[in-house]
Q: What sequence folds into this?
């Protein structure tokens, strides 16, 4: 379980960084061909968040945190799918900004769940964030 938590947390971090880069390219008009890759990686990020939530449930972390992670994953997935159709026009930047915030919160929720699992003593604190 230790390796799976580590791997999943690192995947969330790397996917999050990649999604931020792709998102900036798309937002600035330099990466419209990257939208499918961005959407697919976003879906995988949510899936990884749900994996961490399941591992957290198995590890005995707070059910409230597990439920929050699952619900936030649904919110992130739906917002990612629906945001291109929201507030289309000159004010779409507002929705794009919210999309960025939703993505950053998704990464943060993954970090919080991983930290909760670590506090349960199932993952050594020094092991999280490193790949061995």
A:
């Amino acid at each position: 379980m230790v390796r799976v938590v580590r791997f999943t947390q690192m995947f969330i971090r790397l996917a999050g960084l990649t999604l931020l880069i792709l998102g900036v390219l798309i937002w600035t008009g330099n990466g419209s061909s990257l939208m499918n890759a961005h959407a697919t990686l976003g879906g995988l990020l949510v899936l990884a968040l749900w994996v961490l939530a399941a591992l957290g449930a198995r590890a005995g972390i707070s059910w409230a945190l597990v439920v929050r992670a699952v619900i936030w994953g649904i919110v992130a997935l739906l917002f990612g799918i629906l945001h291109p159709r929201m507030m289309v026009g000159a004010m779409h930047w507002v929705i794009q900004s919210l999309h960025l915030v939703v993505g950053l919160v998704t990464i943060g929720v993954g970090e919080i769940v991983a930290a909760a699992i670590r506090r349960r003593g199932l993952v050594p604190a020094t092991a999280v964030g490193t790949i061995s």
